[in-house]
Amino acid sequence: MVVRSKRTSAVRKVAKRLAKGVKIQRTRRKAKGKYRCALCGRTIKHEGKMHGRLFAGQLCHRCLDRVLRYAVRAKSEGIDNVPISLRPYVEVAMKRF
């Protein structure tokens, strides 16, 4: 049986030829997928927590703009008019202002 740490789909087998002409198999981890926006699914240029920006690495700039607009409106009108998919992000953004 294969060692437990190598029984995963995140590892692929790579053939390697040594100097003596012997072929061995090594394992190499697959590259991770691209970061995607939690709301719309677009790819994000991920640079970690960029300068302390709100929802960095989670939302794209378009969705972040929508969330911040709803957060400002919700401060004055209430959170009832905010779409349900945006509410968790709007609530966090409201605490920040």
Compact summary:
With 97 residues, this protein is of the alpha+beta class. It has helices at 61-77, 87-96; strands spanning 11-17, 23-29. The protein is 28% helix and 14% strand.
What does this structure look like?
The chain has 97 residues and is of the alpha+beta class. The protein has one domain (4-96). The protein has helices at 61-77, 87-96, and strands at 11-17, 23-29. Helix 1 (61-77) packs across helix 2.
Topology record:
Layout: E1 11-17, E2 23-29, H1 61-77, H2 87-96
Antiparallel strand pairs: 1-2
Distance between the termini: 56 Å
Question: Which segments are poorly predicted (pLDDT under 50) over 5 or more consecutive residues?
Answer: none
Number of strands: 2
What proportion of the residues is helical, as a percent range? 25-40%
Order of strands, widest sheet: 1-2
Please write the string of helix (H) and strand (E) elements: EEHH
- Averaged pLDDT: 86
Structural class: alpha+beta
Main sheet overview: 2 strands, antiparallel
How many domains? The number is 1
**Total of helices:** 2
Strand content: 5-15%
Overview features:
two-stranded antiparallel ribbon; 97 residues; alpha+beta; 2 strands
